[in-house]
Automatic annotation (TrEMBL):
GO terms for biological process: proteolysis. Its main location: endoplasmic reticulum. It is found in: Endoplasmic reticulum; Golgi apparatus; Lysosome; Secreted. Keywords: Carboxypeptidase, Endoplasmic reticulum, Glycoprotein, Golgi apparatus, Hydrolase, Lysosome, Metal-binding, Metalloprotease, Protease, Secreted, Signal, Zinc, Zymogen. It comes from the Bacteria. Pfam families: Peptidase_M28 (PF04389). This is Carboxypeptidase Q. Coiled coil: none annotated. One of its GO terms (cellular component) is lysosome. GO terms for molecular function: carboxypeptidase activity; metal ion binding; metallodipeptidase activity. It comes from Brevundimonas viscosa. InterPro entries: CPQ, Peptidase_M28. Residues 1-24 form the signal peptide.
Protein backbone atom coordinates (compact mmCIF):
# COMPACT_ATOMS: atom_id res chain seq x y z
CA UNK A 1 0.00 0.00 0.00
CA UNK A 2 1.32 3.41 -0.94
CA UNK A 3 1.76 5.95 1.79
CA UNK A 4 0.47 9.47 1.38
CA UNK A 5 2.49 12.44 2.61
CA UNK A 6 0.64 15.71 3.03
CA UNK A 7 2.49 18.89 3.93
CA UNK A 8 0.85 21.28 6.29
CA UNK A 9 -0.17 24.45 4.51
CA UNK A 10 2.39 26.68 6.18
CA UNK A 11 4.30 29.32 4.26
CA UNK A 12 7.79 30.53 5.14
CA UNK A 13 6.34 33.67 6.70
CA UNK A 14 4.09 31.56 8.94
CA UNK A 15 7.02 29.92 10.69
CA UNK A 16 7.30 30.89 14.31
CA UNK A 17 10.22 33.29 13.98
CA UNK A 18 8.29 36.20 15.43
CA UNK A 19 7.09 34.06 18.31
CA UNK A 20 10.62 32.96 19.15
CA UNK A 21 12.95 35.95 18.81
CA UNK A 22 15.60 34.33 20.99
CA UNK A 23 16.36 31.51 18.56
CA UNK A 24 20.07 30.69 18.39
CA UNK A 25 19.74 30.31 14.64
CA UNK A 26 19.96 33.52 12.68
CA UNK A 27 17.21 34.38 10.22
CA UNK A 28 19.42 33.48 7.27
CA UNK A 29 20.06 29.95 8.53
CA UNK A 30 16.35 29.43 9.13
CA UNK A 31 15.45 30.62 5.64
CA UNK A 32 18.09 28.32 4.17
CA UNK A 33 16.75 25.37 6.16
CA UNK A 34 13.26 26.11 4.81
CA UNK A 35 14.65 26.29 1.29
CA UNK A 36 16.41 22.94 1.69
CA UNK A 37 13.21 21.42 3.05
CA UNK A 38 11.08 22.70 0.19
CA UNK A 39 13.66 21.81 -2.47
CA UNK A 40 13.87 18.24 -1.20
CA UNK A 41 10.14 17.76 -1.72
CA UNK A 42 10.66 18.11 -5.46
CA UNK A 43 13.98 16.27 -5.61
CA UNK A 44 14.23 12.61 -6.62
CA UNK A 45 17.91 11.90 -5.90
CA UNK A 46 17.14 9.48 -3.05
CA UNK A 47 14.76 7.37 -5.10
CA UNK A 48 17.18 7.31 -8.02
CA UNK A 49 19.95 6.13 -5.70
CA UNK A 50 17.98 3.27 -4.18
CA UNK A 51 16.62 2.33 -7.60
CA UNK A 52 20.13 2.06 -9.04
CA UNK A 53 21.49 0.28 -5.96
CA UNK A 54 18.83 -2.41 -5.86
CA UNK A 55 18.73 -2.89 -9.64
CA UNK A 56 22.50 -3.07 -10.21
CA UNK A 57 23.46 -5.14 -7.19
CA UNK A 58 20.33 -6.89 -5.93
CA UNK A 59 20.86 -8.60 -2.57
CA UNK A 60 24.04 -7.46 -0.75
CA UNK A 61 24.84 -10.09 1.85
CA UNK A 62 27.70 -8.96 4.10
CA UNK A 63 31.05 -10.02 2.68
CA UNK A 64 29.62 -11.03 -0.69
CA UNK A 65 30.90 -9.85 -4.06
CA UNK A 66 27.66 -7.92 -4.49
CA UNK A 67 28.14 -5.96 -1.26
CA UNK A 68 31.74 -5.19 -2.18
CA UNK A 69 30.78 -4.02 -5.68
CA UNK A 70 28.01 -1.82 -4.28
CA UNK A 71 30.56 -0.16 -1.97
CA UNK A 72 32.78 0.74 -4.91
CA UNK A 73 29.76 2.14 -6.71
CA UNK A 74 28.80 4.10 -3.61
CA UNK A 75 32.23 5.69 -3.36
CA UNK A 76 32.03 6.68 -7.03
CA UNK A 77 28.63 8.25 -6.46
CA UNK A 78 29.93 10.16 -3.45
CA UNK A 79 32.69 11.64 -5.61
CA UNK A 80 30.19 12.55 -8.33
CA UNK A 81 28.10 14.31 -5.69
CA UNK A 82 31.09 16.43 -4.73
CA UNK A 83 31.62 14.98 -1.25
CA UNK A 84 34.98 15.47 0.45
CA UNK A 85 37.37 12.82 1.81
CA UNK A 86 35.63 9.89 0.14
CA UNK A 87 37.03 6.53 1.24
CA UNK A 88 36.30 2.81 1.49
CA UNK A 89 37.50 1.32 4.77
CA UNK A 90 37.74 -2.47 4.72
CA UNK A 91 37.65 -4.91 7.63
CA UNK A 92 37.82 -8.75 7.75
CA UNK A 93 34.64 -10.77 7.81
CA UNK A 94 33.53 -14.41 7.82
CA UNK A 95 31.17 -15.02 4.90
CA UNK A 96 27.93 -16.81 5.79
CA UNK A 97 26.05 -18.67 3.03
CA UNK A 98 22.38 -19.61 3.27
CA UNK A 99 22.38 -22.80 1.23
CA UNK A 100 19.21 -24.90 1.34
CA UNK A 101 16.64 -25.08 4.11
CA UNK A 102 13.68 -27.43 4.55
CA UNK A 103 11.35 -28.17 7.44
CA UNK A 104 8.53 -30.70 7.24
CA UNK A 105 5.95 -32.20 9.54
CA UNK A 106 6.36 -36.00 9.58
CA UNK A 107 3.30 -36.72 11.76
CA UNK A 108 0.46 -36.62 12.58
CA UNK A 109 -0.35 -34.67 9.38
CA UNK A 110 2.64 -34.83 7.01
CA UNK A 111 3.33 -31.59 5.07
CA UNK A 112 6.12 -29.11 4.32
CA UNK A 113 6.47 -25.73 6.02
CA UNK A 114 7.64 -22.52 4.36
CA UNK A 115 10.90 -21.65 6.14
CA UNK A 116 14.25 -19.88 5.90
CA UNK A 117 17.43 -20.48 7.86
CA UNK A 118 18.30 -17.81 10.42
CA UNK A 119 21.35 -15.73 9.54
CA UNK A 120 24.49 -17.19 11.08
CA UNK A 121 22.81 -20.53 11.72
CA UNK A 122 24.67 -23.80 11.24
CA UNK A 123 23.95 -26.74 8.97
CA UNK A 124 22.22 -29.91 10.04
CA UNK A 125 23.85 -33.30 9.46
CA UNK A 126 23.50 -34.46 5.86
CA UNK A 127 20.59 -36.71 6.80
CA UNK A 128 18.83 -33.86 8.58
CA UNK A 129 17.44 -33.82 12.11
CA UNK A 130 14.28 -35.61 13.19
CA UNK A 131 12.54 -35.23 16.51
CA UNK A 132 9.42 -34.53 18.47
CA UNK A 133 8.42 -30.88 18.54
CA UNK A 134 8.24 -29.13 21.91
CA UNK A 135 5.81 -26.34 21.03
CA UNK A 136 5.54 -23.13 23.06
CA UNK A 137 3.10 -20.30 22.58
CA UNK A 138 5.55 -17.81 24.10
CA UNK A 139 9.30 -17.50 24.40
CA UNK A 140 8.97 -17.20 28.16
CA UNK A 141 7.45 -20.67 28.27
CA UNK A 142 10.63 -22.01 26.67
CA UNK A 143 12.81 -20.07 29.11
CA UNK A 144 10.82 -21.54 32.00
CA UNK A 145 11.95 -25.05 31.05
CA UNK A 146 14.79 -26.50 33.15
CA UNK A 147 18.06 -27.64 31.58
CA UNK A 148 17.64 -31.07 29.98
CA UNK A 149 13.86 -30.77 29.67
CA UNK A 150 14.01 -30.64 25.84
CA UNK A 151 16.58 -33.40 25.32
CA UNK A 152 16.40 -34.71 21.75
CA UNK A 153 13.47 -32.45 20.84
CA UNK A 154 12.97 -29.63 18.37
CA UNK A 155 11.95 -26.43 20.15
CA UNK A 156 9.22 -24.42 18.41
CA UNK A 157 8.07 -20.93 19.50
CA UNK A 158 4.83 -19.54 18.03
CA UNK A 159 4.80 -16.07 19.62
CA UNK A 160 3.49 -13.28 17.38
CA UNK A 161 5.12 -9.91 16.75
CA UNK A 162 2.80 -7.00 17.56
CA UNK A 163 2.47 -4.29 14.93
CA UNK A 164 3.46 -0.82 16.16
CA UNK A 165 4.31 2.53 14.58
CA UNK A 166 7.67 2.70 16.34
CA UNK A 167 8.55 -0.98 15.92
CA UNK A 168 8.52 -1.81 19.60
CA UNK A 169 6.75 -5.09 18.89
CA UNK A 170 9.87 -6.26 17.06
CA UNK A 171 12.05 -5.07 19.88
CA UNK A 172 10.07 -7.26 22.26
CA UNK A 173 10.31 -10.40 20.12
CA UNK A 174 13.81 -10.07 18.62
CA UNK A 175 15.41 -12.08 21.49
CA UNK A 176 13.32 -15.05 20.31
CA UNK A 177 15.44 -15.07 17.16
CA UNK A 178 18.70 -13.74 18.55
CA UNK A 179 19.02 -15.95 21.65
CA UNK A 180 16.35 -18.60 21.10
CA UNK A 181 18.56 -21.28 19.50
CA UNK A 182 21.12 -20.89 22.29
CA UNK A 183 18.48 -21.11 25.02
CA UNK A 184 16.88 -24.12 23.36
CA UNK A 185 20.24 -25.90 23.15
CA UNK A 186 20.87 -25.21 26.85
CA UNK A 187 17.74 -27.22 27.57
CA UNK A 188 18.81 -30.12 25.33
CA UNK A 189 17.01 -29.28 22.07
CA UNK A 190 18.58 -30.47 18.81
CA UNK A 191 16.89 -27.87 16.57
CA UNK A 192 14.90 -24.67 16.73
CA UNK A 193 12.01 -23.14 14.76
CA UNK A 194 10.26 -19.84 15.47
CA UNK A 195 7.38 -17.94 13.98
CA UNK A 196 8.86 -15.25 11.74
CA UNK A 197 9.25 -11.88 13.41
CA UNK A 198 6.88 -10.28 10.92
CA UNK A 199 3.55 -8.50 11.13
CA UNK A 200 1.93 -9.75 7.92
CA UNK A 201 -0.11 -12.84 7.11
CA UNK A 202 1.55 -13.88 3.84
CA UNK A 203 3.22 -17.23 3.33
CA UNK A 204 6.85 -16.20 3.25
CA UNK A 205 9.35 -16.27 6.07
CA UNK A 206 11.64 -13.62 7.56
CA UNK A 207 15.32 -14.24 8.08
CA UNK A 208 17.52 -12.29 10.50
CA UNK A 209 20.60 -12.78 12.61
CA UNK A 210 20.90 -15.21 15.47
CA UNK A 211 23.71 -15.85 17.92
CA UNK A 212 26.55 -17.82 16.36
CA UNK A 213 29.26 -20.01 17.82
CA UNK A 214 29.29 -22.91 20.23
CA UNK A 215 26.18 -23.82 22.16
CA UNK A 216 23.61 -23.26 19.44
CA UNK A 217 21.59 -25.54 17.17
CA UNK A 218 20.36 -25.32 13.54
CA UNK A 219 17.65 -22.65 13.49
CA UNK A 220 14.82 -21.67 11.17
CA UNK A 221 11.98 -19.15 10.86
CA UNK A 222 8.62 -20.24 9.43
CA UNK A 223 6.02 -18.06 7.78
CA UNK A 224 3.15 -16.70 9.93
CA UNK A 225 0.52 -18.87 8.17
CA UNK A 226 2.64 -21.96 8.83
CA UNK A 227 2.83 -21.05 12.52
CA UNK A 228 -0.95 -20.75 12.55
CA UNK A 229 -1.21 -24.10 10.76
CA UNK A 230 0.92 -25.68 13.46
CA UNK A 231 -1.36 -24.19 16.14
CA UNK A 232 -4.40 -25.76 14.47
CA UNK A 233 -2.61 -29.06 14.18
CA UNK A 234 -1.86 -29.16 17.91
CA UNK A 235 -5.47 -28.26 18.73
CA UNK A 236 -6.82 -30.99 16.46
CA UNK A 237 -4.99 -34.00 17.89
CA UNK A 238 -3.41 -35.35 21.05
CA UNK A 239 -0.64 -37.01 19.09
CA UNK A 240 2.86 -35.53 19.32
CA UNK A 241 4.11 -33.54 16.34
CA UNK A 242 7.27 -34.91 14.74
CA UNK A 243 9.43 -32.79 12.43
CA UNK A 244 12.42 -33.09 10.14
CA UNK A 245 14.89 -30.21 9.69
CA UNK A 246 17.47 -29.86 6.94
CA UNK A 247 19.92 -27.03 6.25
CA UNK A 248 23.25 -26.52 4.52
CA UNK A 249 23.81 -23.01 5.94
CA UNK A 250 27.11 -21.97 7.46
CA UNK A 251 30.23 -19.82 7.32
CA UNK A 252 32.06 -20.81 4.16
CA UNK A 253 35.00 -18.45 3.58
CA UNK A 254 37.11 -15.59 4.88
CA UNK A 255 36.10 -12.33 3.22
CA UNK A 256 35.82 -8.64 3.99
CA UNK A 257 33.21 -5.95 4.28
CA UNK A 258 33.65 -2.20 4.30
CA UNK A 259 32.32 1.19 5.30
CA UNK A 260 31.87 3.82 2.59
CA UNK A 261 32.51 7.34 3.86
CA UNK A 262 32.10 10.84 2.44
CA UNK A 263 31.54 14.24 3.96
CA UNK A 264 30.82 17.89 3.41
CA UNK A 265 33.65 19.63 5.17
CA UNK A 266 32.62 22.44 7.48
CA UNK A 267 33.82 26.00 7.50
CA UNK A 268 34.41 27.62 10.89
CA UNK A 269 34.09 24.50 13.06
CA UNK A 270 35.22 21.82 10.63
CA UNK A 271 36.66 19.59 13.36
CA UNK A 272 33.19 19.17 14.88
CA UNK A 273 31.61 16.20 13.09
CA UNK A 274 27.96 15.16 12.70
CA UNK A 275 27.69 11.53 11.57
CA UNK A 276 24.71 10.22 9.60
CA UNK A 277 24.10 7.23 7.35
CA UNK A 278 22.63 3.77 7.02
CA UNK A 279 23.88 0.24 6.26
CA UNK A 280 24.73 -0.87 2.76
CA UNK A 281 24.53 -4.62 3.27
CA UNK A 282 21.23 -6.47 3.14
CA UNK A 283 19.81 -9.93 3.53
CA UNK A 284 19.86 -12.20 0.50
CA UNK A 285 16.14 -12.87 0.06
CA UNK A 286 14.95 -9.57 -1.44
CA UNK A 287 17.00 -6.67 -2.80
CA UNK A 288 17.40 -4.71 0.44
CA UNK A 289 15.28 -1.75 -0.66
CA UNK A 290 13.67 -0.80 2.65
CA UNK A 291 16.43 -2.39 4.74
CA UNK A 292 18.46 -0.40 4.21
CA UNK A 293 18.77 0.88 0.65
CA UNK A 294 16.25 3.54 1.57
CA UNK A 295 18.32 4.75 4.51
CA UNK A 296 21.61 5.07 2.67
CA UNK A 297 19.83 6.89 -0.15
CA UNK A 298 17.92 9.28 2.14
CA UNK A 299 20.99 10.39 4.06
CA UNK A 300 23.22 10.73 0.99
CA UNK A 301 20.54 12.71 -0.85
CA UNK A 302 20.13 15.05 2.14
CA UNK A 303 23.87 15.66 2.24
CA UNK A 304 23.94 16.27 -1.52
CA UNK A 305 21.38 19.07 -1.09
CA UNK A 306 23.61 20.59 1.58
CA UNK A 307 26.69 20.22 -0.61
CA UNK A 308 24.87 22.20 -3.30
CA UNK A 309 24.23 25.16 -0.97
CA UNK A 310 26.00 28.45 -1.81
CA UNK A 311 27.85 28.36 1.51
CA UNK A 312 29.43 25.60 3.54
CA UNK A 313 27.89 24.45 6.83
CA UNK A 314 29.77 25.52 9.94
CA UNK A 315 30.32 21.93 11.11
CA UNK A 316 31.37 18.92 9.07
CA UNK A 317 28.64 16.45 8.15
CA UNK A 318 29.86 12.91 7.45
CA UNK A 319 27.78 10.21 5.80
CA UNK A 320 28.71 6.58 6.49
CA UNK A 321 27.31 3.63 4.61
CA UNK A 322 28.12 0.95 7.17
CA UNK A 323 28.92 -2.58 6.05
CA UNK A 324 27.90 -5.85 7.70
CA UNK A 325 25.05 -4.68 9.90
CA UNK A 326 22.94 -7.78 9.37
CA UNK A 327 24.98 -10.98 9.74
CA UNK A 328 26.39 -11.97 13.12
CA UNK A 329 30.01 -13.04 13.31
CA UNK A 330 31.71 -15.93 15.14
CA UNK A 331 33.28 -13.58 17.68
CA UNK A 332 32.30 -12.26 21.11
CA UNK A 333 31.01 -9.02 19.55
CA UNK A 334 28.64 -10.95 17.19
CA UNK A 335 26.95 -8.17 15.14
CA UNK A 336 27.39 -4.60 13.83
CA UNK A 337 30.87 -5.32 12.47
CA UNK A 338 31.03 -2.16 10.35
CA UNK A 339 29.76 0.08 13.12
CA UNK A 340 32.23 -1.37 15.58
CA UNK A 341 35.08 -0.93 13.13
CA UNK A 342 34.13 2.71 12.55
CA UNK A 343 34.09 3.51 16.28
CA UNK A 344 37.21 1.52 17.13
CA UNK A 345 39.28 2.99 14.30
CA UNK A 346 38.31 6.49 15.44
CA UNK A 347 38.54 5.98 19.17
CA UNK A 348 40.85 8.99 19.45
CA UNK A 349 38.44 11.22 17.52
CA UNK A 350 35.20 10.63 19.40
CA UNK A 351 35.56 13.86 21.36
CA UNK A 352 35.10 15.71 18.05
CA UNK A 353 31.87 13.87 17.20
CA UNK A 354 29.03 16.17 18.25
CA UNK A 355 26.03 14.06 17.15
CA UNK A 356 25.13 10.81 15.37
CA UNK A 357 22.04 9.25 13.82
CA UNK A 358 21.07 6.94 10.99
CA UNK A 359 18.11 6.11 8.77
CA UNK A 360 17.39 2.39 9.12
CA UNK A 361 13.63 1.91 9.31
CA UNK A 362 12.45 1.88 5.72
CA UNK A 363 11.03 4.87 3.87
CA UNK A 364 7.85 5.64 5.78
CA UNK A 365 7.20 9.32 6.61
CA UNK A 366 9.07 10.87 9.53
CA UNK A 367 6.59 11.83 12.22
CA UNK A 368 8.67 12.88 15.25
CA UNK A 369 12.05 14.14 16.43
CA UNK A 370 13.93 13.07 19.56
CA UNK A 371 16.90 15.11 20.78
CA UNK A 372 19.54 14.23 23.38
CA UNK A 373 18.81 14.74 27.07
CA UNK A 374 18.73 18.38 28.08
CA UNK A 375 17.90 19.73 24.61
CA UNK A 376 14.12 20.05 24.89
CA UNK A 377 14.04 23.57 26.34
CA UNK A 378 16.55 25.16 23.97
CA UNK A 379 16.42 27.68 21.17
CA UNK A 380 17.79 24.99 18.87
CA UNK A 381 14.80 22.74 19.55
CA UNK A 382 12.41 25.62 18.87
CA UNK A 383 14.15 26.38 15.58
CA UNK A 384 14.04 22.71 14.53
CA UNK A 385 10.37 22.47 15.42
CA UNK A 386 9.56 25.60 13.42
CA UNK A 387 11.19 24.18 10.30
CA UNK A 388 9.99 20.57 10.66
CA UNK A 389 6.38 21.17 11.68
CA UNK A 390 5.25 21.88 8.08
CA UNK A 391 6.41 18.35 7.23
CA UNK A 392 4.16 16.88 9.89
CA UNK A 393 7.11 16.17 12.19
CA UNK A 394 6.35 16.65 15.88
CA UNK A 395 8.81 17.04 18.75
CA UNK A 396 8.92 14.12 21.17
CA UNK A 397 10.33 15.30 24.52
CA UNK A 398 11.62 11.83 25.46
CA UNK A 399 15.42 11.98 25.20
CA UNK A 400 17.03 10.03 22.38
CA UNK A 401 19.09 7.19 23.83
CA UNK A 402 20.39 6.00 20.45
CA UNK A 403 20.33 6.89 16.80
CA UNK A 404 19.81 3.43 15.31
CA UNK A 405 21.68 0.09 15.42
CA UNK A 406 24.85 1.21 13.63
CA UNK A 407 25.21 4.25 15.87
CA UNK A 408 25.40 2.02 18.95
CA UNK A 409 29.21 1.71 19.24
CA UNK A 410 29.64 5.46 18.62
CA UNK A 411 26.98 6.32 21.21
CA UNK A 412 28.70 3.93 23.64
CA UNK A 413 31.85 6.04 23.16
CA UNK A 414 29.95 9.07 24.48
CA UNK A 415 28.56 10.71 21.33
CA UNK A 416 25.01 12.14 21.67
CA UNK A 417 22.33 10.76 19.35
CA UNK A 418 19.19 12.22 17.81
CA UNK A 419 16.33 10.42 16.06
CA UNK A 420 14.12 11.36 13.12
CA UNK A 421 11.46 8.71 13.71
CA UNK A 422 9.77 7.08 10.73
CA UNK A 423 6.33 5.54 10.63
CA UNK A 424 7.16 1.85 10.68
CA UNK A 425 3.63 0.47 11.03
CA UNK A 426 4.06 -1.81 8.01
CA UNK A 427 7.87 -2.03 8.04
CA UNK A 428 7.92 -5.54 9.48
CA UNK A 429 5.53 -6.77 6.81
CA UNK A 430 8.46 -6.93 4.40
CA UNK A 431 11.63 -6.53 6.52
CA UNK A 432 14.13 -9.41 5.97
CA UNK A 433 11.92 -11.11 3.37
CA UNK A 434 11.68 -11.80 -0.35
CA UNK A 435 9.27 -8.85 -0.47
CA UNK A 436 11.91 -6.26 0.47
CA UNK A 437 12.05 -4.76 -3.02
CA UNK A 438 11.91 -1.32 -4.63
CA UNK A 439 8.16 -1.51 -5.21
CA UNK A 440 7.61 -1.19 -1.44
CA UNK A 441 9.02 2.37 -1.43
CA UNK A 442 6.77 5.39 -1.87
CA UNK A 443 8.87 8.11 -3.58
CA UNK A 444 6.75 10.87 -2.01
CA UNK A 445 7.38 9.56 1.50
CA UNK A 446 11.07 9.24 0.68
CA UNK A 447 11.19 12.91 -0.38
CA UNK A 448 9.64 13.88 2.96
CA UNK A 449 12.42 12.00 4.71
CA UNK A 450 15.10 13.80 2.72
CA UNK A 451 13.43 17.14 3.46
CA UNK A 452 13.44 16.51 7.20
CA UNK A 453 17.04 15.29 7.24
CA UNK A 454 18.41 18.11 5.10
CA UNK A 455 16.64 20.89 7.00
CA UNK A 456 17.50 19.48 10.43
CA UNK A 457 21.14 18.89 9.53
CA UNK A 458 21.52 22.41 8.19
CA UNK A 459 20.24 23.84 11.46
CA UNK A 460 22.45 21.56 13.56
CA UNK A 461 25.57 22.08 11.47
CA UNK A 462 25.22 25.87 11.60
CA UNK A 463 24.30 26.08 15.29
CA UNK A 464 26.45 26.42 18.37
CA UNK A 465 24.35 23.96 20.36
CA UNK A 466 26.50 21.35 22.11
CA UNK A 467 24.47 18.30 23.07
CA UNK A 468 27.45 16.95 25.00
CA UNK A 469 27.27 19.74 27.56
CA UNK A 470 23.46 19.61 27.81
CA UNK A 471 23.28 16.01 29.02
CA UNK A 472 22.43 15.69 32.65
CA UNK A 473 20.33 18.88 32.73
CA UNK A 474 16.59 18.80 33.21
CA UNK A 475 14.49 17.92 30.19
CA UNK A 476 11.13 19.71 30.34
CA UNK A 477 8.12 17.92 28.87
CA UNK A 478 6.23 21.00 27.62
Amino acid sequence: MRLSVRLLAVSATALSLAAAPALAQDARTLREAEQLRDRALHDNVAYELVEELTTRFGPRLAGSASEQASARWGADRFREMGFDNVSIEEFPLALWTRGEARVEILSPFPQPLQVVALGGSMATPAEGIEGEAAIFETYQQLLDQPEGALAGKIAVVLQDTVQAQDGRGYGATSPIRGNGPFEAAKRGAVGYVLRSLGTHDHRFAHTGATRVGEGTVPAFAMSPPDADQLRRMVAMTDQPVRMRLFSTAGFTADSHSQNVIGEVRGSGAADEVIVIGGHLDSWDLGTGAIDDGAGVAITAAALKLIEDMPRRPRRTIRVVWWGSEEVSQPSPAQGLAGARFYAQSRSGEMANHVAVSESDFGAGPIYSLNLPAGAADTDFRRAAQAVLTPLGVLFDPAPATGGGPDTGPTVAAGVPAFRLNQDGTDYFDTHHTVDDVLDRIDPEAMDQNVAAWAAFLWLLANSDVDFRTLRGTATPTN
